[in-house]
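Study both lines:
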Amino acid sequence: MSSLSRELVFLILQFLEEEKFKESVHRLEKESGFFFNTKYFDEKVLAGEWDEVEKYLSGFTKLDDNRYSMKIFFEIRKQKYLEALDKQDKAKAVEILVQDLRVFSTFNEELYKEITQLLTLHNFRENEQLSKYGDTKTARTIMLGELKKLIEANPLFRDKLTFPTLRSSRLRTLINQSLNWQHQLCKNPRPNPDIKTLFTDHTCAVPNGPLAPSPANQPVTTLTKPTAFPSLGAHGPFPPGTAVAAAANAGALASWMAAAASGASTVQAAVVTPASIPLPQNQVSILKRPRTPPATPGVVDYQNPDHELMKRLRPAPSVEEVTYPAPRQHAPLSLEDLPLKAALALHQGSTVTSMEFHPMQNTLLLVGSATGEITLWELAGREKLVSRPFKIWDMANCSLPFQALVAKETPMSVTRVAWSPDGNFIGVAYTKHLVHLYAFSGPNDLRQHAEIDAHVGAVNDLAFANPNRQLCVVTCGDDKLIKVWDVSGRKHFTFEGHDAPVYSICPHHKENIQFIFSTAIDGKIKAWLYDNMGSRVDYDAPGKWCTTMLYSADGTRLFSCGTSKDGDCFLVEWNESEGSIKRTYLGFQKKLAGMVQFDTSKNHFLAVGEDGQIKFWDMDNINVLTSTDAEGGLPALPRLRFNREGNLLAVTTSDNGFKILANQAGFRSLRAMETSAFEKMRNPADSSLIKAVMFPSFVVPGAPVASVSCKVERGSPVRPSPVLNGVEPSKPRIDDSTDKKPWQLAEILDPAKCLQATLPDTTGSSTKVVRLLYTNSGAGILALGFNGIQRLWKWVRNEQNPSGKATAAVVPQHWQPNSGLLMTNDVSGVNLEEANPCIALSKNDSYVMSAAGGKVSLFNMMTFKVMTTFMPPPPASTFLAFHPQDNNIIAIGMEDSTIHIYNVRVDEVKSKLKGHQKRITGLAFSTTLNILVSSGADAQICFWSIDTWEKRKSVAIQMPAGKAANGDTRVQFHVDQIRILAVHETQLAIYDASKMECIRQWIPQDSLSSPISSAVYACNSQLIYTTFRDGNIGVFDADTLRLRCRISPSAYLPQGNQGLSPLVVAAHPQEPNQFAVGLNDGSVKVIEPTEGEGKWGMIPPSEAINTSPSTTSNQTPEQLQR
């Protein structure tokens, strides 16, 4: 449908709304698919009119269109199902289950089974995932909030959520103008014509009396009647219609074309109609500025309220009653909105040439460098998640000129990195010929997708676009060409017309017109439609050299920033309707050699890297708003990039790295990693956006599985390095504090210096806590006692705790089912003093598996009932670990030193691993390296292949002098799935699991000289929480194993309780600064830093290495690495 036809639909929608034809309005919205009325949708959802909700949605998307659509339909049908269960209408619930929810069973059978099991419960709130389900109204409101987020993120709803800004009664105004034109064309116009119909053109009847006024004396204006536009032939995969809309559109691009056609600049191709005929100049003018008839006595205002026709057209109420959304208004500007303070300084290892934040995950940054390497950083965790050095994927498919360049060992640098709008693809352009496309399904899943020999010479820019809803890649290069490719690497368009290498591109769309702006190094700006008809615009950029163009976030304002050959910088805003410069920004001081970079933020701010600093402008003010040097270290022309929220700004540094500047909101996002982002990093197999809130195991159909490799990429955080006093000297320091203060070890001696909560016990069954876990949701804590009884605490969502997550600020409930059951393990015939209790929790928190010297029991977390028991002793089970990709597979460490790989579903031991000499005390899986790591009471660490279950290597823990090689050893993987923490009473040690060797070690000494009782990584693996048998707690920096904070027993243990100490520690799965400890008297405490502090001490600076003896190791580098 052409642009004018689409606009006509909007005019009809406005007319129907004004006339109160409510049903017709929403039916046309659905049938046209042009405007999704969120107000109407909200009303129907809150009213529970589910059939109408789905019927309305069907006009915009189908269930299987994409993962967002699938999640939308799932949430609606799940809510309908739960409401039927809540009303105890089991027959209706079964009907919904079979007719509406069964479709999801093909994508996740386990999910469907769990939903079906709800029918067996008297109250579905007994389900762990649904325990916080309130009343129907509240549940609908919560679900509606989730649906809105999914709709806004769904690309199928792009540009359909905002109704265009129209004056009231716009259709009537156009009719009035049409009647005026018709009256002017009358041969015998009458002063007061009688208009009685719109079905035929108006003509004034010939008067019967005296002669009518001569037509020559009337203000008659001749207008060429437009002819019907024939359909434009299809070009490649894009159906006809794009060029039609462009030629007829009176918006921005048509105006640029018109201005180009009438201006001084030379135009290579005039505005082309679908019939490939140049648009007449008078029609260009009409497109640009529609003419209005002169006000003369012969022209009648048919909108006069007394005119008969307008009486029939006029609605009963005021025509000002328009309920469509109004344009968004900008919030008041403040300097506090700008990211001005340096939050992080990270080292890339080579000059950073391009950066781009993920379009949805605000702390995920993609970086390209001069060596051709690309790196994915998780800023909230300060982690290099993935690093890919440059390499040619398939030389045979490359052109001969490129192969010749490779033979000469020509260096290859990254010129541009970019994310696709949905964040599923990464594009990388290089200085010679190539473009690489990667498929991105999660932080540990970056897969080669397509390699394109795109241009002769450098590929100077790359961007993603969606012409006709097909994801494409647009590139430009030194060969003066712009090319459009689909994501499989097939070329669809080549645009020729520039006389110099093309420097940058800016794909965009207005309404349904898709176009591309391009700039060349001769300063020419051109615009292209997705056809083969040449450029539509030819302008000179300010400075007439290298220029970059960007739109504001809402797509309504166009800016360009560039440099002249003399080094003068230019930042301007363009008037799209005129194709002229609207505003030139001031504040550039020096002539600089090179090309200036800029970016826009949230429709408010512009930022430019110039003269070793970052300068900011309010978009509506030509003068510099403020500037910052980011605490120094910036190059003369730093590159920069905002994240989507505008609260973080990445800027390049002179020392082959980059800094992250932040505002207050940015600092908060960096201090505490958001739950969804961390869950994606922690469990890449579960990283789909379509996860059901109710069941975290819901997986997108067809989602790629994380790749598995034992290769450590270049730039891996575990690369070999010398170890000195527990510190890698060459590793850059990341200062996460906003204030520059002299560093000193944080010591907490007073209970008032930290937040803590003691969990209540209402059963009287408490005994010393030997195992402690947070639930994966972060809303509960599970403790296994010495006597084999498990206790569960849950935090509920309320005014004091709106997140419903575990917190030290609120005391949780000691939770039990209505039956009063306890989760009690089989301990018949067991000597508890010799038992080694063990516990493991399923990923969706539905089941817990545990043993205390007897059989392994599988408990239902909702009912506390024992689902099954298996593996009776002897030998007894001593450690349990679920396989990360299959909850039915469990690794079970045994008292006899073997490891059983057990399949719960078929009740069968698939493999039995032998390699230890004493009982198994720790197990950990790495899907990245495809290995299982085990530890035992023999102080050995073994590495096993998951594919074959064969042992790869065995490493002995390096014991301090005089210590026997025995004692429990625990292992836990870092979130990078490569480094592993080994905990023994004599030490903390970090191993590189890819090389199977120790790279760092810390031994108790000084104020922390007591044996270690337990240690665990924080959820983001930046800290290690360590408990000691004398009651002290140490918080260590995970990278350096240097102490950040010591928590004295006096800060959290009651006075006068000698002998009380923590036996186990657990870290919150989403809050990196929260942990819990289980004590030898059976109590459990949750501990957090105070709100004022927000974190546990500061990272020790490098100069503090020799001033803090409590953080140093008494092992030499040679001893550690031999």
In short: The chain is about 15% helix and 30% strand. The two ends are 73 Å apart (CA to CA). Residues 209-252, 257-330, 674-740, 1102-1122 have pLDDT under 50 and may be disordered.
